[in-house]
Amino acid sequence: MTQPAASTPSTDATPTPLLFTPLKLQSLTLPNRVVVSPMCMYSAQNGLANDFHLTHLGQFALGGAGLIFTEATAVSPEGRISPDDLGLWNDDQLVPLGHITDFVHRYGGRIGVQLAHAGRKASTYSPWKGRGAVPVEAGGWQVLGPSDTAYNASFPTPSAMTLEDIRRVTADFAAAARRALMAGFDAAEIHAAHGYLLHQFLSPLANTRTDEYGGSFENRVRFLLEVVRAVRAAWPMHLPLFVRVSATDWAQGGWDLDQTAQLASLLRYEAVDVLDVSSGGLTPLQHIDVEPLYQVPFAARIKQEVPDLHVMTVGLIETPAQAEQVLREGAADLIALGRPFLRDPHWVQRAAHEFGVQLPLPDVYARAGW
Asked: pTM of the entire structure?
Protein backbone atom coordinates (compact mmCIF):
# COMPACT_ATOMS: atom_id res chain seq x y z
CA MET A 1 0.00 0.00 0.00
CA THR A 2 1.12 3.57 -0.60
CA GLN A 3 2.35 5.04 2.67
CA PRO A 4 1.87 8.74 3.48
CA ALA A 5 4.65 11.10 2.62
CA ALA A 6 5.12 14.80 2.18
CA SER A 7 3.13 15.95 -0.83
CA THR A 8 5.14 17.39 -3.69
CA PRO A 9 4.21 20.00 -6.28
CA SER A 10 3.88 18.98 -9.87
CA THR A 11 6.73 21.30 -10.94
CA ASP A 12 9.87 22.51 -9.16
CA ALA A 13 8.83 26.13 -9.76
CA THR A 14 5.58 25.82 -7.83
CA PRO A 15 5.81 25.96 -4.02
CA THR A 16 3.84 23.39 -2.08
CA PRO A 17 0.61 24.93 -0.75
CA LEU A 18 0.47 25.17 3.03
CA LEU A 19 -2.58 22.91 2.88
CA PHE A 20 -0.26 20.09 1.82
CA THR A 21 2.62 20.89 4.17
CA PRO A 22 3.11 18.24 6.87
CA LEU A 23 2.55 19.16 10.51
CA LYS A 24 4.28 17.36 13.37
CA LEU A 25 2.29 17.04 16.59
CA GLN A 26 4.41 15.28 19.19
CA SER A 27 5.48 12.02 17.48
CA LEU A 28 2.57 12.11 15.02
CA THR A 29 3.21 13.71 11.63
CA LEU A 30 0.16 14.69 9.61
CA PRO A 31 0.83 14.57 5.85
CA ASN A 32 -1.44 17.56 5.23
CA ARG A 33 -3.47 20.13 7.17
CA VAL A 34 -6.98 18.84 6.31
CA VAL A 35 -8.88 17.22 9.18
CA VAL A 36 -12.20 15.37 9.12
CA SER A 37 -14.18 17.15 11.81
CA PRO A 38 -16.08 15.06 14.38
CA MET A 39 -19.61 14.53 13.03
CA CYS A 40 -22.34 12.68 14.93
CA MET A 41 -23.74 9.86 12.81
CA TYR A 42 -26.32 8.42 15.26
CA SER A 43 -25.77 4.90 13.93
CA ALA A 44 -24.44 2.87 16.88
CA GLN A 45 -26.16 0.39 19.18
CA ASN A 46 -25.09 0.20 22.82
CA GLY A 47 -22.20 2.45 21.91
CA LEU A 48 -20.73 -0.14 19.54
CA ALA A 49 -19.24 0.79 16.18
CA ASN A 50 -20.40 -1.29 13.22
CA ASP A 51 -19.90 -1.68 9.48
CA PHE A 52 -21.34 1.77 8.87
CA HIS A 53 -18.63 3.41 10.97
CA LEU A 54 -15.92 1.35 9.27
CA THR A 55 -17.14 2.41 5.84
CA HIS A 56 -17.84 6.01 6.85
CA LEU A 57 -14.49 6.68 8.52
CA GLY A 58 -12.45 4.38 6.28
CA GLN A 59 -13.41 6.28 3.14
CA PHE A 60 -11.62 9.38 4.43
CA ALA A 61 -8.37 7.44 4.79
CA LEU A 62 -8.72 6.25 1.21
CA GLY A 63 -9.36 9.86 0.20
CA GLY A 64 -6.15 11.23 1.74
CA ALA A 65 -7.36 13.21 4.77
CA GLY A 66 -4.51 14.28 7.01
CA LEU A 67 -6.37 13.31 10.20
CA ILE A 68 -9.78 11.75 10.78
CA PHE A 69 -11.82 12.24 13.94
CA THR A 70 -14.62 10.01 15.12
CA GLU A 71 -17.91 11.50 16.15
CA ALA A 72 -18.47 12.49 19.78
CA THR A 73 -17.73 9.23 21.61
CA ALA A 74 -19.38 9.05 25.01
CA VAL A 75 -17.26 8.34 28.08
CA SER A 76 -20.30 6.93 29.94
CA PRO A 77 -23.78 5.72 28.97
CA GLU A 78 -25.46 8.86 30.37
CA GLY A 79 -22.98 10.98 28.42
CA ARG A 80 -24.46 10.06 25.05
CA ILE A 81 -26.33 12.72 23.11
CA SER A 82 -28.74 10.06 21.89
CA PRO A 83 -29.19 6.32 22.39
CA ASP A 84 -27.49 5.89 19.00
CA ASP A 85 -24.08 7.40 19.84
CA LEU A 86 -20.68 5.73 19.88
CA GLY A 87 -19.15 4.99 23.27
CA LEU A 88 -15.91 4.04 25.00
CA TRP A 89 -17.19 3.25 28.47
CA ASN A 90 -16.54 -0.51 28.37
CA ASP A 91 -14.01 -2.90 26.90
CA ASP A 92 -16.54 -4.48 24.52
CA GLN A 93 -16.41 -1.25 22.50
CA LEU A 94 -12.66 -1.60 21.90
CA VAL A 95 -12.68 -4.33 19.25
CA PRO A 96 -14.96 -2.69 16.65
CA LEU A 97 -13.14 0.62 17.05
CA GLY A 98 -9.83 -1.20 16.73
CA HIS A 99 -11.07 -2.71 13.47
CA ILE A 100 -11.56 0.85 12.19
CA THR A 101 -8.17 2.14 13.34
CA ASP A 102 -6.47 -0.89 11.78
CA PHE A 103 -8.16 -0.17 8.45
CA VAL A 104 -7.23 3.52 8.54
CA HIS A 105 -3.61 2.70 9.36
CA ARG A 106 -3.44 0.02 6.67
CA TYR A 107 -4.16 2.71 4.07
CA GLY A 108 -1.76 5.29 5.47
CA GLY A 109 -4.24 7.35 7.48
CA ARG A 110 -4.26 8.82 10.98
CA ILE A 111 -7.31 8.76 13.22
CA GLY A 112 -8.32 10.45 16.45
CA VAL A 113 -11.19 9.96 18.89
CA GLN A 114 -13.35 12.73 20.31
CA LEU A 115 -14.20 12.00 23.95
CA ALA A 116 -17.47 13.55 25.05
CA HIS A 117 -20.19 13.89 27.65
CA ALA A 118 -23.42 15.57 26.58
CA GLY A 119 -24.53 16.69 30.05
CA ARG A 120 -27.95 18.34 29.96
CA LYS A 121 -28.16 17.82 26.17
CA ALA A 122 -28.07 14.03 26.60
CA SER A 123 -30.94 11.52 26.22
CA THR A 124 -32.34 13.25 23.15
CA TYR A 125 -33.57 11.78 19.87
CA SER A 126 -31.40 11.37 16.81
CA PRO A 127 -32.33 14.22 14.44
CA TRP A 128 -34.40 12.10 12.06
CA LYS A 129 -36.19 10.17 14.83
CA GLY A 130 -37.77 13.03 16.74
CA ARG A 131 -37.08 16.08 18.85
CA GLY A 132 -36.34 16.70 22.47
CA ALA A 133 -36.07 14.27 25.37
CA VAL A 134 -36.20 10.51 24.95
CA PRO A 135 -38.41 9.15 27.77
CA VAL A 136 -37.08 6.40 30.02
CA GLU A 137 -39.56 3.87 28.63
CA ALA A 138 -38.14 4.52 25.14
CA GLY A 139 -34.51 4.12 26.20
CA GLY A 140 -33.85 7.51 27.77
CA TRP A 141 -32.16 8.26 31.10
CA GLN A 142 -31.71 10.87 33.81
CA VAL A 143 -29.23 13.49 32.62
CA LEU A 144 -26.62 15.53 34.48
CA GLY A 145 -25.57 19.16 34.32
CA PRO A 146 -23.75 21.81 36.31
CA SER A 147 -27.13 23.08 37.47
CA ASP A 148 -30.73 21.87 37.28
CA THR A 149 -31.72 24.08 34.33
CA ALA A 150 -32.73 22.38 31.06
CA TYR A 151 -31.44 23.47 27.65
CA ASN A 152 -35.02 24.28 26.67
CA ALA A 153 -38.56 23.18 27.51
CA SER A 154 -38.41 20.04 25.34
CA PHE A 155 -35.04 18.81 26.65
CA PRO A 156 -34.54 16.74 29.80
CA THR A 157 -34.26 18.49 33.16
CA PRO A 158 -30.80 17.67 34.53
CA SER A 159 -29.77 16.77 38.03
CA ALA A 160 -27.16 19.22 39.31
CA MET A 161 -23.91 17.30 39.62
CA THR A 162 -22.53 16.58 43.04
CA LEU A 163 -18.81 16.69 43.77
CA GLU A 164 -18.87 12.91 43.61
CA ASP A 165 -20.46 13.10 40.14
CA ILE A 166 -17.73 15.47 38.99
CA ARG A 167 -15.00 13.14 40.23
CA ARG A 168 -16.69 10.15 38.61
CA VAL A 169 -17.08 11.83 35.22
CA THR A 170 -13.46 13.00 35.35
CA ALA A 171 -12.42 9.40 35.92
CA ASP A 172 -14.69 8.31 33.04
CA PHE A 173 -12.82 10.62 30.66
CA ALA A 174 -9.49 9.18 31.77
CA ALA A 175 -10.72 5.57 31.44
CA ALA A 176 -12.05 6.28 27.95
CA ALA A 177 -8.67 7.76 26.98
CA ARG A 178 -6.94 4.58 28.11
CA ARG A 179 -9.34 2.51 26.03
CA ALA A 180 -8.77 4.80 23.06
CA LEU A 181 -5.06 4.07 23.27
CA MET A 182 -5.71 0.33 23.36
CA ALA A 183 -8.01 0.70 20.35
CA GLY A 184 -5.14 2.19 18.34
CA PHE A 185 -6.10 5.85 18.03
CA ASP A 186 -3.38 8.34 17.09
CA ALA A 187 -4.89 11.42 18.75
CA ALA A 188 -7.52 12.28 21.32
CA GLU A 189 -9.81 15.29 21.59
CA ILE A 190 -11.75 16.45 24.64
CA HIS A 191 -15.12 17.88 23.61
CA ALA A 192 -15.74 21.10 25.55
CA ALA A 193 -17.90 22.82 22.93
CA HIS A 194 -21.38 22.99 21.42
CA GLY A 195 -23.27 23.17 24.70
CA TYR A 196 -22.21 19.77 26.02
CA LEU A 197 -21.18 19.09 29.61
CA LEU A 198 -17.76 20.72 29.83
CA HIS A 199 -19.00 23.75 27.90
CA GLN A 200 -21.99 23.93 30.26
CA PHE A 201 -19.60 24.36 33.17
CA LEU A 202 -17.70 27.10 31.31
CA SER A 203 -20.72 29.27 30.55
CA PRO A 204 -22.52 31.36 33.19
CA LEU A 205 -25.69 30.88 31.15
CA ALA A 206 -25.75 27.18 32.12
CA ASN A 207 -23.60 27.14 35.25
CA THR A 208 -25.27 28.82 38.23
CA ARG A 209 -23.36 26.87 40.88
CA THR A 210 -22.16 28.60 44.04
CA ASP A 211 -19.39 26.15 44.95
CA GLU A 212 -15.81 25.88 43.68
CA TYR A 213 -17.10 24.92 40.20
CA GLY A 214 -19.27 27.99 39.63
CA GLY A 215 -19.21 31.76 39.66
CA SER A 216 -15.78 33.12 38.78
CA PHE A 217 -13.87 32.31 35.60
CA GLU A 218 -11.35 30.32 37.64
CA ASN A 219 -14.14 28.20 39.12
CA ARG A 220 -16.00 27.65 35.86
CA VAL A 221 -12.90 26.38 34.04
CA ARG A 222 -11.90 24.13 36.95
CA PHE A 223 -13.79 21.02 35.77
CA LEU A 224 -12.38 21.21 32.25
CA LEU A 225 -8.84 21.64 33.55
CA GLU A 226 -9.28 18.65 35.85
CA VAL A 227 -10.54 16.55 32.94
CA VAL A 228 -7.63 17.68 30.75
CA ARG A 229 -5.14 16.70 33.47
CA ALA A 230 -6.79 13.33 34.01
CA VAL A 231 -6.87 12.56 30.28
CA ARG A 232 -3.29 13.76 29.81
CA ALA A 233 -2.19 11.43 32.60
CA ALA A 234 -3.89 8.52 30.81
CA TRP A 235 -3.00 9.56 27.25
CA PRO A 236 0.72 9.26 26.39
CA MET A 237 2.71 12.45 26.00
CA HIS A 238 4.08 11.35 22.63
CA LEU A 239 0.56 11.48 21.11
CA PRO A 240 -1.29 14.76 20.56
CA LEU A 241 -4.19 15.98 22.68
CA PHE A 242 -6.80 18.32 21.22
CA VAL A 243 -9.47 20.30 23.06
CA ARG A 244 -12.53 21.55 21.19
CA VAL A 245 -14.12 24.74 22.51
CA SER A 246 -16.91 27.07 21.51
CA ALA A 247 -15.23 30.47 21.32
CA THR A 248 -18.51 32.22 22.06
CA ASP A 249 -22.06 31.40 23.07
CA TRP A 250 -23.32 34.07 20.67
CA ALA A 251 -25.53 35.28 23.53
CA GLN A 252 -25.32 38.17 25.96
CA GLY A 253 -23.84 37.26 29.32
CA GLY A 254 -22.41 33.97 28.09
CA TRP A 255 -19.00 32.48 27.39
CA ASP A 256 -17.11 34.72 24.95
CA LEU A 257 -13.91 35.09 22.97
CA ASP A 258 -12.06 36.97 25.71
CA GLN A 259 -12.65 34.07 28.12
CA THR A 260 -11.67 31.58 25.41
CA ALA A 261 -8.34 33.37 24.93
CA GLN A 262 -7.81 33.31 28.69
CA LEU A 263 -8.59 29.58 28.77
CA ALA A 264 -6.23 28.93 25.85
CA SER A 265 -3.38 30.53 27.77
CA LEU A 266 -4.05 28.03 30.60
CA LEU A 267 -4.40 24.98 28.35
CA ARG A 268 -0.97 25.45 26.82
CA TYR A 269 0.48 24.67 30.26
CA GLU A 270 -1.58 21.46 30.49
CA ALA A 271 0.22 19.75 27.59
CA VAL A 272 -2.64 20.42 25.16
CA ASP A 273 -1.29 20.40 21.61
CA VAL A 274 -4.19 21.80 19.58
CA LEU A 275 -7.15 24.03 20.40
CA ASP A 276 -10.04 23.21 18.06
CA VAL A 277 -12.03 26.44 17.85
CA SER A 278 -15.73 26.26 17.02
CA SER A 279 -18.65 28.22 18.51
CA GLY A 280 -22.24 28.14 19.76
CA GLY A 281 -24.54 25.35 20.91
CA LEU A 282 -24.97 26.39 24.53
CA THR A 283 -28.30 28.20 24.43
CA PRO A 284 -31.34 28.37 22.14
CA LEU A 285 -31.10 32.16 22.54
CA GLN A 286 -27.92 32.28 20.45
CA HIS A 287 -27.84 34.58 17.44
CA ILE A 288 -25.25 33.57 14.84
CA ASP A 289 -24.45 35.54 11.70
CA VAL A 290 -23.42 32.64 9.48
CA GLU A 291 -21.24 33.30 6.45
CA PRO A 292 -18.21 31.65 4.83
CA LEU A 293 -15.22 31.49 7.20
CA TYR A 294 -17.33 33.04 9.99
CA GLN A 295 -15.45 31.25 12.77
CA VAL A 296 -11.94 31.85 11.43
CA PRO A 297 -11.48 35.16 13.32
CA PHE A 298 -11.93 33.29 16.59
CA ALA A 299 -9.08 30.93 15.74
CA ALA A 300 -6.98 33.85 14.51
CA ARG A 301 -7.37 35.61 17.86
CA ILE A 302 -6.17 32.54 19.75
CA LYS A 303 -3.31 32.03 17.30
CA GLN A 304 -2.20 35.62 17.82
CA GLU A 305 -2.43 35.63 21.62
CA VAL A 306 -1.16 32.10 22.29
CA PRO A 307 1.31 31.51 19.43
CA ASP A 308 2.86 28.38 20.96
CA LEU A 309 -0.49 26.54 20.88
CA HIS A 310 -1.55 24.96 17.58
CA VAL A 311 -5.02 26.04 16.46
CA MET A 312 -7.63 24.33 14.28
CA THR A 313 -10.53 26.20 12.69
CA VAL A 314 -13.84 24.90 11.36
CA GLY A 315 -17.10 26.15 9.89
CA LEU A 316 -18.23 26.95 6.33
CA ILE A 317 -14.80 26.46 4.82
CA GLU A 318 -15.86 24.95 1.53
CA THR A 319 -13.15 25.30 -1.09
CA PRO A 320 -9.44 24.47 -1.24
CA ALA A 321 -8.73 28.14 -1.98
CA GLN A 322 -10.53 29.23 1.19
CA ALA A 323 -8.63 26.68 3.26
CA GLU A 324 -5.30 27.76 1.82
CA GLN A 325 -6.16 31.42 2.44
CA VAL A 326 -6.77 30.74 6.13
CA LEU A 327 -3.38 29.06 6.47
CA ARG A 328 -1.56 31.72 4.43
CA GLU A 329 -2.98 34.45 6.68
CA GLY A 330 -1.72 32.62 9.74
CA ALA A 331 -5.19 32.33 11.23
CA ALA A 332 -4.88 28.60 11.97
CA ASP A 333 -2.59 25.60 11.63
CA LEU A 334 -5.25 23.03 10.69
CA ILE A 335 -8.50 23.12 8.72
CA ALA A 336 -11.37 20.93 9.90
CA LEU A 337 -14.14 20.12 7.44
CA GLY A 338 -17.49 18.47 8.11
CA ARG A 339 -20.19 18.80 5.46
CA PRO A 340 -17.66 19.18 2.60
CA PHE A 341 -16.40 15.67 3.45
CA LEU A 342 -19.94 14.30 3.57
CA ARG A 343 -20.48 15.62 0.05
CA ASP A 344 -17.07 14.54 -1.23
CA PRO A 345 -14.98 12.03 0.76
CA HIS A 346 -12.18 12.67 -1.74
CA TRP A 347 -12.11 16.43 -1.08
CA VAL A 348 -8.37 16.25 -0.36
CA GLN A 349 -7.67 14.57 -3.69
CA ARG A 350 -9.66 17.24 -5.51
CA ALA A 351 -7.78 19.98 -3.65
CA ALA A 352 -4.45 18.42 -4.58
CA HIS A 353 -5.52 18.30 -8.22
CA GLU A 354 -6.54 21.97 -8.16
CA PHE A 355 -3.18 22.96 -6.67
CA GLY A 356 -1.13 20.70 -8.93
CA VAL A 357 0.11 18.64 -5.99
CA GLN A 358 0.96 14.95 -6.30
CA LEU A 359 -0.87 13.34 -3.39
CA PRO A 360 0.31 9.95 -2.05
CA LEU A 361 -2.62 7.56 -2.42
CA PRO A 362 -3.26 3.85 -1.96
CA ASP A 363 -2.23 1.99 -5.10
CA VAL A 364 -5.82 1.12 -5.96
CA TYR A 365 -6.69 4.84 -6.21
CA ALA A 366 -3.46 6.13 -7.74
CA ARG A 367 -4.72 5.11 -11.19
CA ALA A 368 -7.32 7.88 -11.07
CA GLY A 369 -4.81 10.23 -12.60
CA TRP A 370 -5.33 13.17 -10.31
From this structure: 0.95
